[in-house]
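**Sequence with structure:**
===
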Amino acid sequence: MTPTRLPDPSADEIALSKVLVATIVDELRTRDGFMPFERYMELALYAPGFGYYVAGARKFGRAGDFVTAPELSPLFGACLATQCAATLTTLGGGHIIEFGGGSGRLAASILRALATLDALPKSYSIIELSPELRRRQHAYLTVEIPELVSRVTWLNGPPATPLAGIVIANEIIDALPVTLFRAARSGVTERGVGVDADGVLVLRERPASRELEANVAARQQAAPAPWPESYCSEINHRQRWWLADLEHFLARGVVVLADYGYPAAEYYHSDRSEGTLQCYFRHRVHSDPLWYPGLQDITAAVDFTALADAAVDAHFQVEGFAEQAAYLLSLGVTERLAAHSGGSDLRRHQMTQAVKTLLLPHAMGTRAKFLVLSCDYAGPILGFTVRNDLHRL
């Protein structure tokens, strides 16, 4: 049943979703009626032409489904530019690679700040799978930074050879498909998707594989308190693949990962017994991932402990971990705000409110985290003077 609290999609949107549902149902027939949730999430978000992130609907900002930090304030990107400048200077020049360019605002704010620091990269590459988003990003950057847009390139995958420089991934890991499980007294089950007699997608469960059982058992044993009788959560296997693949993008330099999530002890806490999976549609948050596939974002919080472990296995050095508020304060976000004293009272008020949203605990300040990695790099790692919470991982 469609949740009544959500806005109604348009007829064209519904038609698009129906095509994707038909694709999912067709594949279910080849899978004996059970599709692992990881595969369902992959199709819902990335199916060519129909998945949420590759179809043409507007996703970012007030007219979309959610607002990311770069949409709120250019000061977010200006702070990240400080690490970019330090890295590029240490390397004697280099490149920036951004995964998932969003609206283009992060690229614009970083490049604008680097221009003032006389520390522009040789190139700024955006890894973007959606042709529609590429067009929107190019159009935005052409208007906002016409003198710098020639430095921006768009890629579907790795460059011809790995580059020296800095990789930025803002809210990328939380959109990687995840495996869902339920741990109960009767055993561990894998959660997935099936179809009922009326052709409607439904959640199903099947006995977990030995590998999944072992992964769940390891998390249960490490949890700070016993889990309740029925405990549902997620495991992100693909973040390990994603990090391992970075060797094809970065030869030397720094990786800045910003996302929503928790250290493992908080992620798999007994109180979080329904997991972290959330869906976003026109700024409404709900918990039904089967609602109009292809029209909504589906995310799961990042297990930063597992992410850091995967980084070590991929031969990265884990340099720092901090909540967003501490990271941005370390990079001088409040001083940057004070420096923007010009403009109207309304504009100053808007900038102040945006920074509050970035910093305050009830907004993004503690929910979003930064994990910074390095590879064959001995230069400065910035953003952790206020605090470095590596001990929490």
The first helix runs from residue 11 to 30. The first strand starts at residue 35 and ends at 36.
